[in-house]
Every structure is written in structure tokens, then in C-alpha cells.
Amino acid sequence: MIAVIGLLVAVAALGVLDVANLYLAKRSLQNVADLAALAAAQQMDDPCSQPLVTASANAASNGFVASGTTRTLAVTCGRWDSNGNGGMTFVSNGTPPLNGVQVSVTNTVPYFFLGPAHRIAASATAKASVIGSFQVGTSLAQVNLLNGMLGALLGGTQVQLDAASWNGLANANVKVADLAAVATAAGTYDGLLATQATVGDLATILLNAVGRDGALTADVSAATSGLKAVAALVPQGTLKPIQLAALSGSPALLQLGVANAEYAADASVNVLQMLIAGAEIAAAGNAPVTFNLDTTGLSGVLPVSVALTLQVISPPSIAVGEPGYIEGTSTWRTQAQTAQILLGANATISTTNTTTSWLGIPYVLDVSVQLPLYVVAAQGQAWLQSAQCAASKAASTQTIGVQTGLANICIGTPLANGVSATDVSGFSCSSTNARWSVASVSLLNTPIATVSAPSVGVPVVNPSSATLMFDGNGNPINGNSVNSNALGAVLDNSLQSTVTTLGQLTESNNGLKLTLLSGALDLLLGSVIGGAVGGLVDGLVMPVVTGVLGNTLGPVLKGLDDIILGPLLQLLGVQLGVATVTDYPLTCGVATLVQ
Fold first, then answer.
1. Which one of 44, 317, 373, 525 is at 20 to 30 Å from 224 when CA atoms are compared?
2. What does the pLDDT look like over 226-240, one tens digit per residue?
3. Phi and psi dihedrals of 358, rounded to 5?
């Protein structure tokens, strides 16, 4: 009995040694798989050639060399992405660009004492996301435009930031991780996705985020000053809450084209762009608002006053995320939209305070020519088509596709009631049979006549597409400028064609029509003299109106385009026939184990 018991104890002891050896071998094999997957994920390519080479080399450096059927190593490339049910899954050979690697290794471990050799296996999945961030159709413009536009978006709130504050905001950037840290008390990415804010709240969040990483901001003091001023504003009117961030598919200020918000942690976004886009979200769908601007830039042309109206039909968004299509679809993961905008500009050119020799008009006769112009623009979009990380950011590349928006430019009676989102895609100018008041005539400061003209519609700006290339620092490649590309600008050409059309309007072709206010003439001069003056007014006024429409209007419209319309549309995230993308440095994610 003692011998039997001793034998059993000996066998058990030897079995424990074999099991322990098997456990250690399994643990070592898992380490090989983990390290090989992490290394391979840093060398991702869609053909999966480089990850295999990298994984094999890494395993060999850790003492594991594949040999026949005894030791095997297999690498599968794919995408680590959302499975549609709130979880994450690895899809083998998924929709490019691929972001994950699965390494599977096997080994044959002999039992020293008990039985034949045992085959063990281990696997590991690692991902390394490439994250880009950009916005389409924005630029920095004059301070008076920024103050007036932001005030209008906030329902008439007076905004008076100086140039230093605006420049500070324009050169300030924050990381998504910093936004998540300050958006809620918990400081989580789920909190970031759940945050809704006013424009003032958004400014406060950005203010706190700017202070967390001063290296991303050129002048922290100037940016802080500007954000404090915006946070202190009290918006008037009805403004919508701003959804700060959302994953793909939901409307928000930051469109995160990632399966998990944490993947976008190191991506940076611009503070000024976030403020303006946030204000547009808050104002979206409201009726048009009027705002005033300093038009001293047009004073060299003629005495001109410009009344502006603005309506945000649908706001823009800023894109942060991975390149390529969403798994199994033809929808881009990371997209930024331009805004849908109604922008009206009613310019008035008057002969008041000019000399008697100007256009041969007597001093007592004043002619004011009006130009009610409005632009209705539908959304354009940009998407992160592909991105490739290299050893340096200068060698890395980003490919961004752009689709410009649809637009109509109309001359005629302004749209006082605005436009709804459903009207934009099929929007057309007023009927050519409708007439608008192109000029008013005063004698001794008393209105005596009006001149009308048919409405004019500039041909629709048709969407065009292009592909822009940037390096990993966000700089354009192959001569593409951030503010100019092959698609070209159309607003100026459209306005010039409008000048030609208006200049051809005459009384003889029923384009212009003078209507005397006979009651005013009779009251001012008496019925007999008033009737005689009517023909004289016609002879004096119509050459002035046709002269302004044919000769003077060109420089005025060019000034409106250069100083007001073009810069305002760009600030609002809209460009007509232009695909300007503001791109930011590419974020090449650190490889992490996910399974």
C-alpha cells in the first residue's frame, strides 16, 4: 500500500510538472502573439503584405520561428469596427482602409512524463487607427465681418471682439481628448457625446480645453480673451442647443467618423471654426435676420449702402475620423458638410451729395438705384477618402474628396420669409415676369417716380467634384492651395454676367419701366407744371439708371464680392464652385490590443 501510494504521488508530481510546463508554454505563446500583433498593426497596408513580414520578424526576435506544422504563424488583416449592436468586432479583409491585424500562432509542446505532445494555440488582435480632421469652406476675414456675422447668428447680440482676439481664436486648436475632459464633470467620452450646449457654454468648454495644451495655440492669452468675451454674450431670440459631438450618422458639431470616440482622442480641431459652426447650428431654421456691416471698403466706387440678411437653413459640420467607407456600405466614414445658407445683399447707389456735373444731373434731382441680390446655396461636402502614415508627418499623405454645393444667384425682390431645407435643392429664382423696384427718383427730397425691372436669375451653379491631397501636417501637395483649386470661383463671373444682363435692360425692350407718382408731382409743382415735368424726368432719369446698370454696377458688384459676399460665405462654410478644405495634422494612432 505504501508503495502504491508513493507511486501515485510520484505520477501526480510528474503530471504537475507537465501541466506547469504546458501553462508556461501557453503564456509565452500568447506573449508572442500579442507583441507580433502590436508590431504588425503599426505597419498596416491593405494588401496585408507588410504586416505579415513585420509580425514574423517580431515573433522571431522573441524566439518564435515558424517551421512546418510544428510551429505556425498566420496573419489576417481587417477592420476593428462597430458591429451595429453597440459592440466591436474584427472583420477579416473588411472594407479598406484596414486598421486591424489578427495574429494566430500554434506550437507543439511535448509532455515529458505523461503522454504524447500537446498542440497549443494563441491569437491576438491589435488596431492602429489613422485619424484625420478637416472642415470645408472656411477662412479668416475682416473683423467687421466676424463681429457682424456672429452677432446676427446670435439673434442680434452685439459682438465687439478686436482683431487680436479673432486672430487668437483663428490660431487656437484643441484636442478631442481635451474637449472630452472638460465637457462634463465626469470628463468621459460618453459625456462628450451626450453634451448639449449654448454658444456661451461652447465658448466656456473651448476656453477650458485651450488651457490644457497650450502648445496647440499660437497665443493662448489672445484666444482666452476672445473666448471669455463670447462666453459672456447673452444671445437674444430662439436658439437651438448645440450637440457637441456624435458618432457617424447623427448630426452634431463634431462628426466623429470612428467606431469609438476614444479613437479620435489626439485629433485636433480649430477653435474659431467650432465657434462659428456652433453658432450656425444654434441659428439653423430660424427666420432671416438683418445685420449691419461697415462698408467703407466700397466708398471708393460710389456712395453705397448695403443691407444684409442672413438665414442658416442647415448648418455645417467639422469632420474627425478614419478614412474610407463604412463597413459594407458606400457611405464615407468621415464627412464634413458645408452650410445651407440664404444670404441677401441689398446695395443702394445714390446721386445724393454729388456735384451737378456728375452724369449731367441737376442737383435737385436724386436717383437711387437698388440692387437686391440674394444667394441660396445647398450643401456641399468633403470626405476623408484615404490616409497613409509614414515615418514622418511630411511623408504621410491624406486624400480628401470634395463635392461643391448647388447654388442660385438671384436679382429681384428679396425673400423676406426665408427658405426651408426642403426648398433648397429645387430652389429657383422668382419668375422673370415679376418686377422689382430698381430705382427711386426724388425731386427736392420728395419721391416723384420709380423705375422697375424684371427679375434676373443667374444660371445655377452646378456641383463639381475634385480630389485634394495633403501631407500629414495638413499642407497641400502638388501645388494645390488651401484657398484655390482646380474647380475655380464662379461668383465673380456670375455677377459680371448679371451686370451684362442688367445693362441691356432698356425701356424699348420692356426691361425698364418708369412710373411717375403723379400725386406727388402735383402736390410739389401743381398739376400743370407737374405734367410737363413728367417727360423731363423720364428723359433725365432713364439715362442715369441705364448708365448705372451698365457701367457703374460692375465695380460695385466686384466690391461686394471681394469685400462682403465671398468672405462671408466662406466664413459661413459655403463656397460657390470652390472646394477649399482646411485640413489639420494627421493623427497616426498608437497600436493597441483589442482582443
1. 317
2. 999 999 987 766 788
3. -65, 115
